[in-house]
């Protein structure tokens, strides 16, 4: 059923759309961007819910989707029964035009997953302050303190990368910034959205049984997480997109070299990871797409941490996230700094 909707040009310049859309989000919107087949190929159309004369457009809702999560956002199946739309751009340019919107939506997916992870962490750390175990607050128990610190450290790196990515989107009139956004947006969406589900599950474990109950909010966050991995292209699509940029976009390797050279020598784990990525990029095989995308994302985070975070915090991040041997223990000072930042200075 994919892309079978057809559009026929009318005398007044508008188009008549006939066909079926299996997944149609937010049907109550004022308008939608819809792909449909024309004589010139797959094209993009502006399809309003109401026509200029006030009549409802011929978009028939067949049924609402019974989804795992994201239930406050209606999704449905629709039939276009001679619906009216207006061509955007030229016939045959549909994919190119829709991807302009898709890039920003992918960034939104990464931001949304990160925000929900931060919300889950806030619930977990609040509970750890209130809950007492063996006569002391849960947050003072060494193992729990280390778990929460690792969660906070992960969020620090993601925040640094997402702010850099937001700057690139704001400045995309600059060719380098546009390329930065083009490369790191799918990488961020892939990694952050993948991390969301296990992260919320970890927060759930901090709360224990109440975390599994609806009144804790965590079940809703958990159900909400998968949709951002799927929207605007699931995991493999993001990784293939990253490989496409690496293989076809002029200047991308110079861009990466410039970003990594800027912080070279500040941390041995970061430098080692850069060399490992450089070896993989000599011949970026498709089957390594996920590993390459993940490493690229981590190095993007690491570069921002080394550039803007305090040296101890940045080095802790690099060791935890980039040391392939694992088993890294965070110092008490780093744990204190992370938890103080995460709680807005509340004594922990």
TrEMBL record:
Domain Acyl-CoA dehydrogenase/oxidase C-terminal: 92-245
InterPro entries in alphabetical order: Acyl-CoA_dehydrogenase-like, Acyl-CoA_DH_CS, Acyl-CoA_Oxase/DH_mid-dom, AcylCo_DH-like_C, AcylCo_DH/oxidase_C, AcylCoA_DH/oxidase_NM_dom_sf
Positions of the Acyl-CoA oxidase/dehydrogenase middle domain: 2-82
Pfam families: Acyl-CoA_dh_1 (PF00441), Acyl-CoA_dh_M (PF02770)
Cofactor: FAD
EC numbers: 1.3.99.-
Superkingdom in the source lineage: Bacteria
Family note: Belongs to the acyl-CoA dehydrogenase family.
Protein name in UniProt: Isovaleryl CoA dehydrogenase
Origin species: Escherichia coli
């Amino acid at each position: 059923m994919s892309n079978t909707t057809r559009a026929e040009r009318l005398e007044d310049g508008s188009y008549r759309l006939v066909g079926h859309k299996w997944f149609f989000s937010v049907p109550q919107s004022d308008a939608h961007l819809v792909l449909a087949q024309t004589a010139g190929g797959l094209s993009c159309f502006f399809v309003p819910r109401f026509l200029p004369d006030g009549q409802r457009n011929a978009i028939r809702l067949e049924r609402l989707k019974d989804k795992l999560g994201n239930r406050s956002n209606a999704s449905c199946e629709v039939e276009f029964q001679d619906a009216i739309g207006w061509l955007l751009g030229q016939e045959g340019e549909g994919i190119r035009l829709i991807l302009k919107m898709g890039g920003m939506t992918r960034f939104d997916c990464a931001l949304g997953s990160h925000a929900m992870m931060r919300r889950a962490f806030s619930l977990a750390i609040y509970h750890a302050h209130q809950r007492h175990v063996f006569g002391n607050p849960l947050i003072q128990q060494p193992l729990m303190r280390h778990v929460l610190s690792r969660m906070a450290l992960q969020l620090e790196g993601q925040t640094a990368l997402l702010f850099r990515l937001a700057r690139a989107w704001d400045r995309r009139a600059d060719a380098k910034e546009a390329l930065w956004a083009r490369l790191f947006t799918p990488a961020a969406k892939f990694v952050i959205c993948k991390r969301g589900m296990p992260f919320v599950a970890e927060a759930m474990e901090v709360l224990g049984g109440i975390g599994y109950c609806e009144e804790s909010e965590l079940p809703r966050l958990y159900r909400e997480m998968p949709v951002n991995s799927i929207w605007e292209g699931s995991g493999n699509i993001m990784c293939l997109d990253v490989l496409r940029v690496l293989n076809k976009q002029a200047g991308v390797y110079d861009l990466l070299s410039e970003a990594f050279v800027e912080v070279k020598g500040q941390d041995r784990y970061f430098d080692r990871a850069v060399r490992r990525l450089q070896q993989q990029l000599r011949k970026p095989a498709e089957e390594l797409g996920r590993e390459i995308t993940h490493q690229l994302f981590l190095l993007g985070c690491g570069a921002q941490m080394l550039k803007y975070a305090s040296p101890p915090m940045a080095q802790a991040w690099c060791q935890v996230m980039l040391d392939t041997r694992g088993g890294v223990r965070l110092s008490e000072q780093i744990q204190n700094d992370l938890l103080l930042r995460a709680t807005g200075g509340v004594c922990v």
